[in-house]
Write a structure and sequence with these properties.
- About 25% of the residues lie in helices and about 25% in strands.
- With about 250 residues, the chain is α+β, with helices and mostly antiparallel strands.
- It has two domains: about 140 residues, SMI1/KNR4-like (3-Layer(aba) Sandwich), CATH 3.40.1580; about 90 residues, no CATH class.
- The strands form two sheets. The chain has a six-stranded antiparallel beta sheet with strand order 1-2-3-4-5-6.
- The longest helix is centred in the C-terminal third of the chain and has 14 residues.
- About 5% of the residues have low confidence.
- The structure holds zinc ion.
- Zinc ion (ZN) binds next to loops.
- InterPro entries: SUKH-3.
- This is SUKH-3 domain-containing protein.
- It comes from Amycolatopsis samaneae.
Amino acid sequence: MLIENPGSAPEVVRPAIRALRKARWSPSRRVPIDADLRALEEDGYRVFPAAVDFLRNFSGLFVDVRRPYGHDEIIFSAAEACAGISWGLAAEYTEQAGVAVVPVGEAFSRHMTVFLGEDGRWFGGYDQVLVEFGTDVFEFIENATGDKGMSVPYKGSGVRSSRRAWVKKLVTVIDAGRGDAAFVSCPTCSKYRLEIRYVGFPETRKAYLLFWCDACLRGIQLSRVWAPEGFRVWPIGDPASVADVPDFKHAVR
Ligand SMILES: [Zn+2]
């Protein structure tokens, strides 16, 4: 039987829509995207029609995200995403995803670049690793937020020394919001000797990140991130900020 008066039924709204409405999104929203298209072109991305449609509707939105360590947000903007990527090239991401991808935003204190694939899949990019995050923007937002945290999309590479394994540990460390990494084992040697350090600007909390193991001297580095609340930011101009950081080897793919 059809409900004749749907207006009287309580409205059930999925979490992503709720978050987007708070950010003043609507399906009919349209914004100019000249700056986005220029940035994508300069960085060598092939912009497909679905990306143009998405950006016209979503570019410029800041979506509030509840994280264990406090406030965070997802930023939709190809121009911002392009400016934030200090590693890799369009061709590398396309090769990893298996389809053309376009950066359309940033998330997770800007540790993660958000990519839209030509086949409609969504990806998070961390330290040159692309991870699937769903098949539409709503799935992406829900997978990237909420109680499950960022660790959900990782299906476990099984390769202990891979960059992906390191990123997974990093996500755990940041999600916990303790300000240190001592409670997590090293993905390469299994010892509890991990160190995390943000080096940057303590006022703005913009920084680069060093994450390494003091036992086996492996690790990863991320550029241009925001240090989450609870993590100390060591001043970038001070040699003492990195004087005790060992010369560690970056984990390979
Ligand atoms: Zn180790």
